[in-house]
Specification:
GldB-like; mainly alpha; 15 helices; lipoprotein; Gliding motility lipoprotein GldB; 53% helix; 3 domains
Length: 286
């Protein structure tokens, strides 16, 4: 798109790519505000230099395409009716982020140049790690997992949310078996190690404070939301610890119940059933 320099060229492109415009920009091809915004982006010398740096960093996208193709093959193995979405790579000058739907995936490449890039998303440092190339495909697969991840709409407990996240990460790991768990959950390697070795303390906090069946959104967000640390547990406890712990429970559930397939797991909306049958109590072994 950056080659489109006039408003007429931009209008013509948008009119020929209605679905892309509707889903990614969430507007119509005739939107003059969008046309004017793209015109300014495409004719800004600094933005053009940023675009060239992005192209140089990503090259011909062979690795990205190969990883997505492999992941889609794995999804089709488990879910034969899966239809590969259209993949679109684009450049938005950090205007928009990754978009994933059933029929289209739009990847703004400049968003994933890494935390040390000259231009990067305006997020705190502890969040910037995931805006790097190795996290693109795991992020896409985790979002795609929503389609298969059954939930109980009447269960509003922290445990239910934890199991939901755990199932989504288990799905992603199954579709990307050669990808490190740290990339799946977007944790630094050091956080993965510390959390694994301290999970008895983490588990003890959840039990002692009786938060597994908490339904208060503010309290739940302390354990599920993005934070630099979960200080209620300790200064070394990373944010989203509830998501990680949910994954541990799901992983233990599959270990304790080897006859349960991934499809069975994803269809199971009973978080308490998964938890109880996991026999998880903070133990290190998998």
């Amino acid at each position: 798109m950056m080659q489109l320099k006039t408003k007429e060229q931009i209008k013509d492109f948008l009119s020929k790519n209605t679905k892309f415009v509707n889903q990614f920009y969430q507007t119509s091809p005739e939107d003059t505000t969008l046309i004017n915004r793209l015109f300014l982006i495409h004719n800004n010398p600094d933005t053009q230099a940023f675009y060239e740096d992005t192209k140089k960093s990503f090259g011909n996208l062979t690795d990205l395409k190969s990883q997505l193709e492999t992941a889609f093959k794995h999804i089709k193995y488990y879910y034969p009716d899966f239809k590969e979405p259209q993949i679109i790579t684009t450049f938005t000058a950090l205007d928009l982020e990754l978009m994933v739907s059933d029929d289209m995936i739009v990847i703004p490449l400049e968003t994933f140049l890494g935390p040390k890039a000259k231009y990067r998303p305006q997020y705190p440092l502890y969040l910037l790690q995931r805006f790097d190339k190795p996290y693109i495909v795991p992020s896409i697969l985790t979002i795609l997992s929503k389609k298969y991840n059954a939930i109980d709409p009447n269960d509003h407990t922290l445990l239910s949310d934890m199991i939901y996240y755990g199932k989504s990460y288990e799905f992603t790991r199954a579709m990307l078996p050669d990808v490190a768990d740290s990339l799946v959950i977007a944790y630094a390697d050091s956080n993965m190690t510390k959390t694994w070795n301290s999970q008895d303390l983490v588990w003890g906090h959840f039990i002692d404070n009786k938060v597994l069946y908490e339904t208060n959104d503010r309290i739940k967000d302390k354990y599920l939301g993005d934070r630099p640390k979960v200080f209620e547990i300790g200064s070394d406890c990373p944010g989203r610890i509830g998501q990680w712990l949910g994954w541990r429970i799901v992983s233990r559930y599959r270990t304790e119940n080897p006859s349960i397939s991934l499809i069975d797991l994803m269809k199971n909306s009973n978080a308490r059933d998964i938890f109880e049958k996991s026999k998880y109590k903070g133990q290190l072994e998998d």
